[in-house]
Amino acid sequence: MGVFVTAINKLIIIFLLVLIGCFAKKKDIIDDCFIDKFSGFLTKIVVPCFIISSMQLSYTPELLQKGIVVFITCMIMHIWGMLVGFGTGKLFRVPHMNLGIWVFSCMFANIGFMGVPVISMIFGGNSVFYCAFASAAFNLASYTLGIWIIGKYGDGSHPVQISLRQLVTLPVNIAIIIGIILFIGNIQLPEAIGGTVKMVGDMIAPLAMIYIGAVLGRMPLREMIYDRWAYVISFIRLIVVPLTAYLMLRPFITDQLVLGVVIVGLSTPIGAYCAILAAQYGADERTASRYIFISTALSILTMPFFFFLFI
């Protein structure tokens, strides 16, 4: 009962943080320029610090092995999401111009901005370590297969270019590499540096939730809520994909924490990166934004179901 109450309290905190961000945007306390810059601050500073800090653990082969299991499992689940996306896209006769956004939405959850802070708040412990491997899988798949899918079904005005250099030099991926080197080498950062990195990384939960609220706050509500297909794709993203993944993976992954990180990560809403890529590769950015808005709003109701599978 105590664990249940703790989880509920954490979910309320998450919800209130989202409301703070939404309120700040609606009241023009922050503007669109700030939100866009804030996104860069999170992805280039806060998240990398969080990853490095989370990997400052004493090396054990078992911990590394489980991290690799998370990475491989997440990659397989991205492929599963792609199959679900193409299958349901054909079933619902999704227009060609929107098919790339539809499939991407089924494949990629918001692991960075929502998954990592929520998982760390709910599970704690080594879950933050495993999140780094989940993030690595997301970055590898989204910057290759994800870009190809969005570009293939765009208007053709922007050629698809997959840059290995861009993939390697992402701040998040650099942080993962640094974190793994420090972990395997059993190297602890000096107290001043390690303390700074940890302090910045610890801001990820409140700042990421406030950012998501601010993004929701700048979208016109009327346009968002009347797109019926946004509710369909949200159901697939928030219920179908994580639930089928849970049923498939439960017989093979016995470690509840590893399984919990993967499934809760999959239960998060459509990643904001979908709209960014849509704009970059000639797909419909507004459709992507509507999908993100509705799935993010509904995730507050659906994600607790998956939390409670593991507490």
Descriptive overview:
It contains 15 helices and no strands. Helix content is 78%, strand content 0%. The radius of gyration is 19 Å and the shape is globular. By secondary structure, the protein is mainly α. Helix 2 packs parallel to helix 8 and helix 2 crosses helix 9.
In angstroms, what is the radius of gyration? 19 Å
What is the mean predicted local confidence, pLDDT? 87
- Our measurement of the CA-to-CA distance between the termini, rounded to an integer number of angstroms, reads 10 Å
Give the count of helical stretches.
15
- Which percent bin holds the helix content? over 70%
- The stretches of 5 or more residues where confidence is low (pLDDT under 50) are none
Overall 3D form = globular
Care to count the β-strands? 0
SSE series: HHHHHHHHHHHHHHH
Which sheet architecture does the biggest sheet show? none
Structural class: mainly alpha
- In what range is the share of β-strand residues? under 5%
Brief synopsis:
This protein has helices at 2-26, 32-54, 61-91, 96-107, 111-122, 127-152, 164-168, 171-184, 191-201, 204-217, 221-225, 228-249, 256-266, 273-280, 285-307.
Strand and helix map with partners:
Elements: H1 2-26, H2 32-54, H3 61-91, H4 96-107, H5 111-122, H6 127-152, H7 164-168, H8 171-184, H9 191-201, H10 204-217, H11 221-225, H12 228-249, H13 256-266, H14 273-280, H15 285-307
Helix pairs in contact: 1-10, 2-8, 2-9, 2-10, 3-4, 3-6, 3-13, 4-6, 4-12, 4-15, 5-6, 5-10, 5-13, 6-13, 12-13, 12-15, 14-15
